[in-house]
Each structure stands twice: as structure tokens, then as C-alpha cells.
Design goal:
The protein folds into 3 domains: about 50 residues, no CATH class; about 80 residues; about 140 residues, no CATH class. The chain is built from 8 helices and 15 strands. A hairpin with a 5-residue loop joins strand 9 and strand 10. The longest helix is centred in the first third of the chain and has 20 residues.
Length: about 300
């Protein structure tokens, strides 16, 4: 009889252990049933989803964030995967765009919410030209430094014979006339020749330009005067591989103890940056036919 009782108790214990390991189905929102196992101590539920996922032939849903290298690729990626509820978000600082392909459906109905896990991102890289000029604006340079900078970046200088809105506005406010690329290059070459000369005097001309008179080193003989423009135009892209924009530049200098310091100021770069960013926004809206919000997705 004792053996039979022991057998019965052992069977009961085994049954309890098996019951503790048996899968349990729990009801969650929307009537979905979730299957879970208890751990060996029976104190914690363990999801069996990772084991099921191992045998899937395809993922449950698309997810992940693609990083795109240019605006055209961002638009192509968006058009490849979008649906009618996808949305694009644009940020100005730092400039970037994010498309959420599985964005929430419109309307107050919470049952239409989606995961928002399938995305594409494009971070606008600034052009080398824009970086070079904006980094140097307001920076004081000696004669040799300024001449070298102008010679290196002369390809960015545009012909002022057909000025745009920015140039016309700048000229009207400051009364400046713009130098041609050839004249600016001649200025840089002239400054190179006079690297060992000192400035004798500065004369403002009726044309709005400035005439610098030099004295060569170790002599009292006046050097040839050098005519200096007070402004010039750039035609450079704000973003890499983007369209070019006209930028008015005011050329300035200071003379002290016979030496001269050069610097320049780019006119209203904030407006030009905003215009370039807005142009990109409109291009994406047209190319993708999706709603675009200025900001970041939740």
C-alpha cells in the first residue's frame, strides 16, 4: 500500500510539473491571444515568439531605417515603399528629412495607429563651396592669405552682368558695384606682387571702388596704385549636388601702420539657406506626393 501511495504522489508531482510547463494562452487587447510558457520556477512567463520567428519564411512587417546618400535616392526610396498614409518630416537644424512609411493613419481612431518602424533618412550635406565661404566670412586675413584664398576659390565667383534679386537688393542698399571674376583674380595677383610693400594711402573713387597706393620696401618710391572693388558675386550650391544660389559678398579692409587686413562678409546667408531648404522641401513634396511636416516624427 505504501508503494502505491508513493507512486500516486509521484504521478501527482509529475503532473503538476508538466502543467507548469504547458503553454498558456492569454487574451490581450482586440481579442488577440498570446501564447507563453512558465519558466522552470513557475514564477515568470516566457514568450515563445522568438522560437516561432526562427521558422518564419518572411518577417511579420517591414522595419528599419535606411540612410540615403542624396535627395534623388531619398525620393526613389520613398516612392518604392510608400502607401497613402506615409509621411515626410523635414528639420532645418540640422537639415534632414525622414520618411515614415508605416505612419499612423489619419483621423482620431486609435485602432488605425501603426508601428512607424519603417523609415528612410537623408541628412543634407553642405557643399564644399558653402562650407569654405561661410567658414571664412568675417575672418581677418593678411594680404598673402587673402590673395591665396581668392585665387583658390575664383571658380565660385560669378559674372555680375546679369545680377539676380539678391545682387540687385544688395547694390540698392549699399551702392556697391560688383567685380567680375577676372577683375577679382587680377586683384589677387596684384596683392601677391605687393606682399613686401606697405600701404601709403587709400583713395575712394567715384566708381565706388578703392585705390590703394603702395610704397615698395626699402625705398621711398611710390608703387603702382591698385584698384580694389568693394563687392563681388558668388554662384554656389548650399547643399552638395544641389542647385546653385547667388550670394552677394562685401569686400572690406583695414589699414594700420602701413599694413592691410582683408575680410569679406556674405550677404543674408540665412535667407539663402532657407530658400535652398524650402526648394528641397517643395521638390520632395512634388516627387513623392506625400504630406510633409516641418519637424521630427514621434
Amino acid at each position: 500500500m505504501a508503494l502505491e501511495n508513493q507512486k500516486t504522489e509521484a504521478e501527482a508531482i509529475a503532473k503538476l510539473a508538466l502543467d507548469g510547463q504547458a503553454p498558456h494562452t492569454f487574451a490581450v487587447a482586440d481579442g488577440v491571444g498570446v501564447i507563453a510558457l512558465r519558466d522552470q520556477q513557475g514564477a515568470r512567463l516566457v514568450s515563445i515568439k522568438p522560437f516561432i520567428d526562427e521558422y518564419r519564411t518572411a518577417p511579420e512587417r517591414r522595419q528599419g531605417t535606411a540612410t540615403l546618400g542624396d535627395l534623388a535616392s531619398f525620393e526613389a526610396f520613398t516612392n518604392r515603399f510608400k502607401d497613402r498614409d506615409s509621411a515626410v518630416f523635414a528639420r532645418r537644424e540640422p537639415p534632414s528629412m525622414t520618411v515614415v512609411l508605416d505612419y499612423n493613419q489619419a483621423g482620431p481612431d486609435n485602432t488605425k495607429a501603426r508601428f512607424g518602424k519603417h523609415r528612410g533618412v537623408y541628412s543634407f550635406p553642405l557643399s564644399k563651396e558653402w562650407e569654405a565661404w561661410t567658414a571664412a566670412t568675417g575672418k581677418q586675413m593678411n594680404q598673402a592669405e587673402f590673395a591665396a584664398f581668392i585665387e583658390d576659390r575664383i571658380a565660385d565667383v560669378s559674372d555680375p552682368s546679369n545680377p539676380g534679386t539678391a545682387a540687385i537688393e544688395f547694390s540698392a542698399k549699399l551702392g556697391a558695384k560688383f567685380a567680375s571674376p577676372s577683375k577679382l583674380l587680377a586683384l589677387s595677383k596684384g596683392l601677391e606682387v605687393r606682399q613686401k610693400a606697405i600701404v601709403k594711402n587709400v583713395v575712394s573713387l567715384d566708381s565706388g571702388e578703392v585705390q590703394l597706393n603702395y610704397v615698395t620696401e626699402n625705398t621711398d618710391t611710390a608703387g603702382q596704385p591698385l584698384t580694389v572693388p568693394t563687392a563681388f558675386l558668388l554662384n554656389i550650391p548650399v547643399f552638395r549636388s544641389g542647385v546653385t544660389w547667388e550670394v552677394a559678398v562685401r569686400l572690406r579692409h583695414r589699414v594700420g601702420s602701413g599694413s592691410i587686413t582683408w575680410f569679406f562678409e556674405l550677404y543674408r546667408t540665412d535667407k539663402i539657406f532657407d530658400a535652398a531648404f524650402n526648394e528641397a522641401i517643395e521638390h520632395v513634396k512634388t516627387a513623392t506626393e506625400l504630406p510633409l511636416f516641418v519637424g521630427a516624427p514621434e
